[in-house]
Specification:
12 helices, 428 residues, homodimer, Alpha-Beta Plaits, five-stranded antiparallel sheet, 33% helix, alpha+beta
Chain lengths: 428, 428
Amino acid sequence: MQISSCVSHDVGRESSLSVDLQRLWSRLMDMAEIGEIPGNGCRRLALSQDDLDGRELFLAWCENRGFRTSFDKVGNLFVRRPGTQADAMPVAVGSHLDTQPNGGRFDGVLGVLAGFEVLETLEDRGIETKAPIDVVVWTNEEGTRFAPAMMGSGVHTGALSLPTVLATSDAEGVTVSSELAKHGYSQGLPPGCQRIGRYLELHIEQGPILEEKDKVIGSVSGGQAIRWYDLSILGEETHAGPSSMASRRDPVPALSRVIDTVFNLTRMDDAARATIGRIQTHPGSVNVVPGQISASIDLRHPDDAMLSRMHDRLLQGAREVGAAFTLLDVSVECTWHSPAVAFDVDMGRVVRLSAERRGYPAMEMVSGAGHDAFNLARIVPTTMIFVPCRDGISHNEREYAAPEHCAAGANVLLDAVLHYACSTDDPR
Amino acid sequence: MQISSCVSHDVGRESSLSVDLQRLWSRLMDMAEIGEIPGNGCRRLALSQDDLDGRELFLAWCENRGFRTSFDKVGNLFVRRPGTQADAMPVAVGSHLDTQPNGGRFDGVLGVLAGFEVLETLEDRGIETKAPIDVVVWTNEEGTRFAPAMMGSGVHTGALSLPTVLATSDAEGVTVSSELAKHGYSQGLPPGCQRIGRYLELHIEQGPILEEKDKVIGSVSGGQAIRWYDLSILGEETHAGPSSMASRRDPVPALSRVIDTVFNLTRMDDAARATIGRIQTHPGSVNVVPGQISASIDLRHPDDAMLSRMHDRLLQGAREVGAAFTLLDVSVECTWHSPAVAFDVDMGRVVRLSAERRGYPAMEMVSGAGHDAFNLARIVPTTMIFVPCRDGISHNEREYAAPEHCAAGANVLLDAVLHYACSTDDPR
């Protein structure tokens, strides 16, 4: 085998240089055994023991290949394959290993393991790069145990403050800080020290578009703007039998109006998305009129201005419900806002060029989901590569991506990483 | 002090014979310390350790007074003060010590401790009765940890089968059977062996009527018919961002229609009651379209025929929602039905006579809530005595009954118990 020190990598031309589909797939399946749940799903909630076990397995693989690993105080992991040019800024690839409560085997994991597969492929072929290549595992991308989502990349890029994040607690009152300390991460580097020149993230689409259009590669031009809200409807807990309907302060009828308000927002535009993922009645007893309802609201749109209009309409609608139910206290609070994101144009071009040369049907598209790449895009040139997932289903045990699609995404990632790690231009 | 063996007790005439308000109140407050929650509430879920601790405290009080205690295989407790007439059927008074998740200090507890106060008052005064007097603590009246409600009295009266009840499990999968075995109740008497001649139950009203009408005693003529339902709306879990609104199988918009259907049922009649106490989205994550919603529905009406019409209308409404949302599976299943109950007419007369002679403003009323007395009424002459609770609030930490109202109820209970325990007529 030839030892090549690539001066400038000709994207996709080295058809002989491809990732090892079998190795990548078997690693995906090995990782899926950690926190496995019925129906081929995974449950590795951020910073839980299962999440830690997944990270330990990944780190063991990296160290067995001789790669240096490090971590920062918010638990982000960095795996480095050094470059030949001392001062070159690293090309980083990454994603996350934490999952939804009923998550799948590919969301996040594919991006991390494909990144590692890129390092191993270069290692196998003895290919040197000018710039170092880092594989990054970002902490708590899902945001379901600890809000907000994309926590690790948010702290790394300065979108979130470390002290605020450390003080965040889960439903049981366990703080991010205590979990990080328990797993030894509090001894890590100050977030942001690990510098990044460019960032690439491979991910399953989590939507049906690629499959519908029979494409294998999605070149992601940017991401939707996202807003999260906490809804609270405060009434009064009382017995389900005696008190007259008129005298009750029952929040449930008002919930129905809020639900209608939220879903009516999606009539404003075809690209609008609305989700009420969590609804809880308190105390939640069959013969007790609930004293309170709490719920989550998730609004998305590719255009910031349109999402702002949806936001205004939501708050207005909540005020109207509150006015209609004078015995109740209706409040909607925006807890998180991620503006629309535009990815690097040249990096998108390189992704599509690679797909074309390798013969993968490709298209340009917008990301419906939020990703760590959104945070990175605010500080360095960034892009994402999507591959299809069956029936567009994600955040579900049934989530599935075909082995050949995972490999196709990893090959395009390989080409793009090599292109930038071998060229001398520094993005800054 | 005179030892009297009452031949026939002249209801309410022995004004000198009254319960000890201070003792009754201090016992209520002592019991409230077990499973105490913020805001003066109590949380003693059926057959939990807190429930067991409450029962142990009560049994210790009874045994210290020298009363014989026994229990059956479903955990019902019986405390006996013997009578002089060997074959006389016991007059039983009772209620429950388990509470709602956020329960108060009086619901159920007042009936049990007032019954014990009656025994102690007779003991203090050395008054013998022909019939034995039993104080009964029924297992799992609330039905929030293990459904259905009124479980112990249901098994005692044959309304529920012991094997079915034993196999029932809570949300964590813990069975009634295992909890009973853990606390030693599986060694108890076969349910129903402890025979009862008549049954009286003192309880807070759990509604606003007595307070509104400025009455101290409610003579309960019967109880509402009650039906419980499990609602399930099955959709498909997917990511909150990418998939188009049209392609989603989101159960939440359908929930809004079901809520409207349920509350519209109360327009059929002023006496109709509808409650949706529990709503849960699964998996309940902010950025996941729920795959399923489960909820509870509680319908009540004093008239069986009208409740049946509400039942039919509910099922019809659910079918219509299912037809309108073809991508979802909407199901409503009736899990429990307690027909309307008529209490014993003569016992109601005795209750009102006692109140009148003691100068307590009284009225006849229907019970909005379900009670163990509903089960007993199906096998023996039964009645209930209500006292006011502040603002009609119950199943809530703020639940409160004034000491003088608790004592008034206990005095009427004392009169009625004495009347039947001293008379020789056997109800059967």
